[in-house]
Amino acid sequence: MPQPDHVIRLELPENPDIGPEMRAFFEKCEEKLGMVPNVLRAYTMHPEKLKAFSAYYNTLMLGPSGLSKLEREMIAVTVSSANRCYYCLVAHGQAIRQLAEDPELGEMIAFNYRVAELPARQRRMLDFAWKLTVSPHEVAEADRQGLRDEGFSEADIFDIIDVAAFFNYTNRMAHGTDMIPNAAYHRRDR
């Protein structure tokens, strides 16, 4: 079946002036991933936003945290499931499959994290991220205390909120632009 032939439904510059730093980053993506993720290509419309987005994403998802990389990806996919974000479910579902070395877990989190057999700590974390996404006005101290009761530090709770908030933002960007995931994500780590 043919894949959609667009990155987003807005016209992107043919030869964007993204500067040497971002060009080197794109080359690193090609080297490590075999592609430049379409979310990055989408931001070539605004090179300064591309730089800021990339820096924030890398700090948030790859930087030091009491949350593992897998846990951060699990939050990303849970939020994206609540928002039905095709791009992020495909791209970050692949990251779960890779990090967990478990294709089934990636699918469970994408479709319904509640069916996965998770430790109580991760279940509470995903329940919180889901609630923050679908009914943020209902998040209360009892929800934060529930995270503390599972051993999350104040900094960990901040990181859970930060990751959930970031993916609510990126989901809306993906929906608004009709962003399509790179086809390579579908085939990996199955």
Using only C-alpha atoms, the radius of gyration works out to 17 Å
**Strand tally, please?**
0
Based on Cα principal axes, name the global outline. globular
Order of helices and strands: HHHHHHHHHH
User: Low-confidence runs (pLDDT<50, min 5 residues)?
Assistant: none
CATH class wording of the largest domain:
Mainly Alpha
State the assembly state of the protein chains.
single chain
Q: Beta-strand level of the residues, as a percent range?
A: under 5%
Mean pLDDT, to the nearest integer, reads 95
The percent of residues in helical segments reads: 55-70%
Class derived from helix and strand content: mainly alpha
Specify the CATH homologous superfamily of the largest domain.
AhpD-like
What is the terminal separation in angstroms? 19 Å
Instruction: Please give the CATH architecture of the largest domain.
Output: Up-down Bundle
CATH third-level topology of the largest domain: AhpD-like
| Number of contiguous helices | 10
How many discrete domains? 2
Largest sheet data? none
Domain Carboxymuconolactone decarboxylase-like: 47-111
Keywords: Oxidoreductase, Peroxidase
GO molecular function: peroxiredoxin activity
InterPro entries: AhpD-like, AhpD_core, CMD-like, Uncharacterised_peroxidase-rel
